[in-house]
Design a protein that fits this description.
This is Transcription factor domain-containing protein. It is a single chain. The protein is 57% helix and 2% strand. It has 338 residues and is mainly alpha-helical. The protein has 2 domains: 118 residues, no CATH class; 179 residues, no CATH class. A two-stranded antiparallel ribbon has the order 1-2. The longest helix has 27 residues.
Amino acid sequence: MALSSEPLMTALLELSNTSIIQDMGHQQISRFSSINPWNSRPGSDSSSTFTVEDALTAVLEETRCLVADIAHTWKNMQNLRTRKLEILAHEALDPGIASSIYWMFFRLDLSAALANDRPIQIQLPMSPLPSLPILSSIEEVRERTRAYTHVLLWLLGKALMVYHQQTSPDRYAAPPQLLDSWLDVFEGIEQWYHLRPHEFQPMVDLGVDDQLLQAESSFPLLLFANGTGAFCNQLYHTAMLLLLQCKPRTALLGLQSITLSPLWHSQRICGIALNNDRRESWDPCLLASFLVAARRMTHESQQQEILGGFERVRSITGWDVDGYLTQLQDDWSFLDGF
């Protein structure tokens, strides 16, 4: 497709160049591009004329901006031209490039939403959630992995909407038809976790009280055989953390389980992030999720370990989030005052 489209080829080459420069350790990368992918059809602003080629060009350019300066992109990602992306939401569960583009836009918006404590802006798929028991029976591993990952992202998007509607109903009003009940989303996420295929399950899972765990760590040790396992499990715990922070008083009455503790999920998010040392396994959503969980850590030893973890992520990926870390430390100081 890029061979027949100059804007698309330009976007692809600029993303590649930015990634190479970032990998070499050069931090000063221009945020500006020679293309404007959102207006690649001059004279038209209609979503109906926004083609797959336009969408692919746009997502490559948005990704280039994020690779060049993730903190700046997060702070300025206020408008993903969501009206133009509505057509992609209708193809989110279909095989093909339109679905891949949609979920890449979704991850970009989700990472900014988590980092900035706001709802997602991109439209969620309008169709019902697929049946997880049916998905779990898919024999082809790649297809099963893709489907399970997309369902989890979808559920996390729903959890984020419920969280902001519950905690700030005046600021973040969502159309009633887009809102699921707290319990519906909770049960969907729990079902995803209990039915997840073996490729999503950890190779090592040691709690903080396990005698085999290194004494110098304040967090559990979770290791996965692949990046998808780390990605999905960290985002599962992120979804649960959000939901449990806004749990209705009458929900789950009488149930006593460590898995209903927001702190437990926060610690496992940190445990996954702190043990993720492969560049190809990192994603902007994981970095933002790490920030969300880190805000709940009150012990100085945990905070120092977390700051060291963010520094290691910066050395691995080149992603500098110093401004967010300054705010994180301010949040910790505020908590210490109580």
